[in-house]
Amino acid sequence: MTxxxxxxxxxxxxxxxxxxxxxxxxSSHAHIGNVDEYRRLYRESIESPExxxxxxxxELDWADPWxxxxxxxxxxxxxxxxxxxxxxxxxxxxxxxxxxRNKAAIVWEGEPGEVRTLTYQQLHWEVCRWANLLARNGVxxxxxxxxxxxxxxxxxxxxxxxxxxxxxxSVVFGGFSSKALxxxxxxxxxxxxxxxxxxxxxxxxxxxxxxxxxxxxxxSQIERVLVVRRTGKPVPMQAExxxxxxxxxxxxxxxxxxxxxxxxxxxxxLYTSGTTGRPKGILHTTAGYLLGCALTTKYLFDxxxxxxxxxxxxxxxxxxxxxxxxxxxAIGASVFLYEGAPDFPRxxxxxxxxxxxRITILYTAPTAIRAFMRFGEExxxxxxxxxxxxxxxxxxxxxxxxxxxxxxxxxxGRCPIVDTWxxxxxxxxxxxxxxxxxACKPGSASLPFFGxxxxxxxxxxxxxxxxxxxxxxxxxxxxxxLRGIYGDPEGFRKTYWSQIPGVYFxxxxxxxxxxxxxxxxxxxxxxxxxxGHRIGTAEVESALVSHxxxxxxxxxxxxxxxxxxxxxxxxxxxxxxxxxxxxxxDLRLHVEKQIGSIVRPKEILFASSLPKTRSGxxxxxLLKELVRNGQIEGDxxxxxxxxxxxxxxxxxxxxx
Length: 656
Ligand code: ATP
Ligand code: MG
Known about the structure:
Layout: H1 24-27, H2 35-47, H3 49-56, E1 68-73, E2 76-81, E3 84-85, H4 87-91, E4 104-109, E5 115-119, H5 120-136, E6 145-148, H6 153-165, E7 169-171, H7 178-188, E8 192-196, E9 199-201, E10 204-206, H8 208-215, E11 224-228, E12 242-244, H9 245-248, E13 261-262, E14 266-271, E15 281-285, H10 287-300, E16 308-311, H11 318-330, E17 334-338, H12 349-357, E18 361-364, H13 366-375, E19 390-394, H14 400-410, E20 417-420, E21 454-457, E22 470-474, E23 484-485, H15 489-497, E24 504-512, E25 518-523, E26 528-530, E27 533-535, H16 537-545, E28 550-560, E29 564-573, H17 581-594, E30 603-606, H18 620-629, H19 643-651
Parallel strand pairs: 4-17, 6-7, 6-8, 8-11, 11-12, 16-17, 16-18, 18-19, 19-20, 29-30
Antiparallel strand pairs: 1-2, 3-13, 4-5, 9-10, 14-15, 15-23, 21-22, 22-24, 24-25, 26-27, 28-29
Helix pairs in contact: 2-3, 5-6, 7-8, 10-11, 13-14
Magnesium ion is lined by residues 272, 276, 423, 507.
C-alpha cells in the first residue's frame, strides 16, 4: 500500500454507491443546471478573468464603475480599482425600487418563541436610523465599531448601519467571555460598542451587558456603549458612557444619505475561530468581498425569489457575515434568523421552525448534524420538512456517515447537499458543488468555485502526485480574499504567503481524486505520520464515526519509537451506548476494515465530550497537548466549554 491511496475514488457509504448526481428535477430549475456549463464558466473565470468579472460584477450596483480589475503585488491584492459602491446600499436601497420592497428580508424567531419579520423597506428604515445614531455618536468612515449582540435582527441592522457609514465593524460572538471581548476590542481599537441587555440561550439570559462592563474595566478606549433592550432585565449602566438605543434613536430620523466608498474600503475585521492557535483579526474590504458573497449565495445555494434561506451560523462567525447578512441581502433574498439553542426546549426545535416557516434552504455545520444524530432520528422524522429543497454544510470536513444521515433524515433523499470549504480568510465559499450541476461525493467539497484556483502541493511546494495528500494552496488572488491581519502585516505575510512561495497557504491538508474532486483531510498541523504514511485526521475520524455506536471522534498522534507516530482516538458514544474494552477492540477492527491496518488506533479513549471552539470545531491541538504533555498550555480563549478539558483529563487519567 502506498501512502494515501487507501480510499477509492468514490468510497461507498454504508454499503451504498458514493456518488450522488444532482436530482434532475432540481437541475432543470437551477441557475446552473449542468456540469458543462459550470466547466465553461470556470474556465472563463481562470483564463479570461477580465471578461468573466466584467460580466459578473454587474451583480452589484456601483456608484462609479471600476476601471482596473486587479493590482497584485504579493501579498497585497487590490480588486476593482477605481470603483465606488456602498455595501449597505447594495443590500438594501437598491431592492426598494421594485417588487422586493415589501418582501421579507429577515424572518426572525426568538428562543422564547416570538416571531418578527422585517421587509426590505422596514430593514432599510431601521438601518438608516441606526446609521444616523452612530453618526451622532461620532462614528465616521474608517472608525471601528465592536458589535456584541445575540442573534437578533439588530445584529444585522448594526452591521449594515456601520457599512453605510464606511465604519468597519468587528462582530464578537455573543457567547464569548468578557476576556475574549476585551482582547478583540483592544486589538481593533474601537471607540464604540453595541450590545444588548441580554439574549436567550437554553431558557437563560446571557449577561451580555454585565460582560461588557467587565471587559471595559480599566479600558478607557470605548467612549460609548449603545445598548439594545432585548430581555427587559435591569442591567448596570454607566451614566456617561452607556445609552439605551431605544431612547437615543429618533423616530423621524429615517433618511440617511449613502456615501459610496472605494472598492478597497475596509468593511470589517473578524477574528478566526482559534482552532489552530490564537485567533487572527482578518480584514475584509468592500467590493471583492461583497461580490464573492453575492455570487456564491446565488449559485451555490441556487437562491430564487421565493426561497427562505436559513444559515444557522451566528453572525459572530464569518459564515454569519457572508451567508446570513451580506450574501443573501445583496441578492435580495429572504433570510431566517434564530436566536437560541438548537435543542431548546426540545431537540426538535430546528425541525419545528423549518416546518412552521417553510424554510427552503438549510445551511449548517457537521457538529450540529452529529449532535442531531446523537439525539436520535425520532426527533426529526415526525416533522414535515417537505419545504426543504437544498442543504448545506460548512466548518469541518463532513463525515460521510453524517452526510448520509443529513441527506436521508433531513433532506428525505430529495435535496442536494452543498459541502462548502472555505475560511474566514477567504471571505466566501471556495470549493463546493453547484447543486444543479455537480455530482456529490459524501465527504468531498468537490470542485472550485469560479475564479478559485486551488492545488495540492508537497512540502517543497511542488505539485503533489494525483491522489496524494498534501497542502492545499490557492494559486492566484480571488476577489473576496482577506486583505490582511489587522495591525500585523508581518504575520499576514508569514502565515499565508511565505510557507510556500508565491501562493496562498490555507493551513489545510487535502488530496484531489482523479475526477478533480478535493477531499479536505484536516489541518496540516494535525496530519499524522505513521510509518512514513501521511494520514489526515478526517479520514480516520470518519471511519470511527461510521461505527453505529460512535457519535464523534478526534484523532491525534503520539510519538512512537517504532512508527514515528501512533494514533490516539478520542471517542464519544451515541446516547444509550456504554464504553467497554470489547468496544475498543471492535472500533480498532472497524477502522482497520475501513481504511487499513496502518491506521489501527493504538489507544482509544472514551470521553463524554470533546473540546471544541465556540464555533463547534474540534480542537485537536488541545488533545495532542494532553496526550503528549499531560497538560494544556496553549490558547484556550475560544474553547466552548472549559470544563471539558478537566473532565477529559480525568477520564483519560491525566493530570491537568
Ligand atoms: P484558526 O484559523 O484560528 O485556527 P479556524 O481555521 O477554525 O481557526 P475558520 O476560518 O472559522 O477558523 O475555519 C476555517 C477552517 O475550517 C478551514 O481552514 C478548514 O480547516 C475548516 N473547514 C471549513 N469548511 C470546511 C469544509 N466544508 N470541509 C472541510 N473543512 C472545512
Ligand atoms: Mg484557520
